[in-house]
Structures are given as structure tokens and as C-alpha cells.
Amino acid sequence: MNYVGLLLILVGIGLFVTEIFTSAYALFALAGLVSLILGLLLTFQASVNSGVFYGLFVLMLALVAGGAFFIVRRVSESRLTHVAAGKEDLIGRLAQVRSHLHPTGTVFIEGELWNARIVSGEAEPGEQVVIVGVEGLVLTVRKK
């Protein structure tokens, strides 16, 4: 058995695991793929029939490439998702004025009353305003 090939396979697996826990933009996955291919070539070429070897090689390569593609796709999708919690989620949403905004008052959004400050002008109760910023517990709004 070729121990260098076995070591390259283990290094390749380690690089794939490293790619999962870091944001190296698939560089570790690519290095792991190259290491795995070289390790498979060195380890199994001498000991197995060449038809079986190439079939196994193609199968392993397809599985690893498919797994790497799946991981990279999921990571890139997660980076493009919108913030779904916290005050950043409120920006751009509509709120209903509850008390006269001149320039401060209260607005109602998602079952909660918030203190708000209008950027310019005034807003009467019942009007819709757009949230443009959050400073502590005060929303900055503008007319719709």
C-alpha cells in the first residue's frame, strides 16, 4: 500500500472539513479535490485492475465534486438571504401612525407601538409611513 497516497486522501478530507468551517470561497475544497485525486491515483493504481480503478476514480470524483458543489451553493445562498430578525428587518417596511408625528410620535407595526421621528413634514394618525432607520428604540420614518 502506498502511504503517501493514503496521506493525500486524508489531507483531502481534512481540507473539505476545513472548507465547511471557513469562508475560503471554495479554495480549500479545490485543494482537497486535487489532493484526493492524487491520493487515489497513488494508492489504488498499482493494486487494482485498471478498468475497476478508473470506474472507482470517476465515481469518487463525481461524488466529491457533487458534494463540493452542494456545499458551495448552500453557502452562497445563505450569504444572499435577507436579515430576518432584529431592527434591520424593520427598515423599508410600512407602519401606521398612531399619534401625530410633528416631528415625533408613535407608530404601529407588527402589533407593537414604537416611538418614531419623521424626517420631514408631519403625519396624521392613520397615515402610512415607511421606516428608513432605527436609532435605539426610535424609528426614523418618512411619508409613503
Provide the spatial order of strands within the biggest beta sheet: 1-2-3-5-4
Order of helices and strands: HHHEEEEE
Structural class: alpha+beta
* Average predicted confidence as pLDDT: 84
**Main pleated sheet:** 5 strands, mixed, barrel
Backbone shape: rod-shaped
Number of strands: 5
Question: Total domains, how many?
Answer: 2
Oligomer: single chain
Describe this structure in words.
By secondary structure, the chain is of the alpha+beta class. It has 2 domains: 3-80; 87-143, OB fold (Dihydrolipoamide Acetyltransferase, E2P). The protein is built from 3 helices and 5 strands. Strands 1-2-3-5-4 form a 5-stranded mixed barrel. Helix 2 (27-44) runs antiparallel to helix 3 (50-80).
What brief labels describe this structure?
2 domains, OB fold (Dihydrolipoamide Acetyltransferase, E2P), single chain, 144 residues, alpha+beta, rod-shaped, 5-stranded mixed barrel, 3 helices, 5 strands
Question: What's the structural blueprint in terms of helices and strands?
Answer:
Elements: H1 3-21, H2 27-44, H3 50-80, E1 94-99, E2 104-109, E3 112-118, E4 128-135, E5 138-143
Parallel strand pairs: 3-5
Antiparallel strand pairs: 1-2, 1-4, 2-3, 4-5
Helix pairs in contact: 1-2, 2-3
In short:
With 144 residues, the protein is an alpha+beta fold.
